[in-house]
Amino acid sequence: MQIASELGKNGYYIQVGEKVPSNFTVLGERSSGTNFLKAQLDTIPDMQFKNWGWKHAFITAWNVSPNLMIFGIVRNWNDWLLSMHKKPWHASKQLHEMAFSDFIRTKWESHPIPRPRQDQNMIIEKLIPGDRNPIDGSQIENVLALRALKLKNLLSLPLRAENVVLMKYEWFNQNPGALSDLLKSKFPSLDCPNFEKIKGTSFASFENYKRFEDFRPEFPKSIPEEDLPFIKTNLDSELETSLGYM
Questions:
Q1: 217 membership: H or E segment, kind and range
Q2: How far is CA 188 from CA 43, 180, 193, in A?
Q3: Which helix (H) or strand (E) segment is 24 a member of?
Q4: Alpha-carbon distance 1 to 20, whole Å?
Q5: Per-residue confidence at 196, pLDDT binned at 50, 70, 90?
Q6: This prediction's pTM
């Protein structure tokens, strides 16, 4: 929990080697701000983006090249859950159609197609391995269990790679320039511009998402009170507390 506690206290956790990595990648669950983060990092001329596979998947690699800087981002469970319900990328057709209370209580099922309803004639049989339990390959109980496992997995990055920056979306969104300052303090020779908020890149557009859907439920603007006990029981409360989210 040391990494989680530092992340919760400071808003970030950083671990770097002696040399400036030439490549970077961005990892994090859906609706956590990965698009926003990548858009900022793309402006660094000294580091090139490296496609490291599906950015939302469980991480399985070890002994990552020191030439790669991995950036990971997390978001508070309240806003994240509402956003996941509104834009459940890759989730099954069944999950797309569910009201919030059912959505959080149903087994998580992901398919290779971002929006399973966009082609009614397509038979979807494959499940995305990156959203299944990385230990035994089993289907994950619900979106809350998915979050708990994904958070633990992301926090294992400092054991897997030499160059890692983990951050809370709230810290980065409030002042993107703080990440610029952090990177330049660790790598004085790095040509890093001052990051600023870029309109429209925090999260994928809902308008772009919903135009592929012929039916979606109503989306609550806040989490229903009656669902809070179930949510808090199924989250990893110790980890969420360390992160400052409980």
A1: none
A2: 17, 11, 12
A3: strand 23-27
A4: 27
A5: confident
A6: 0.90
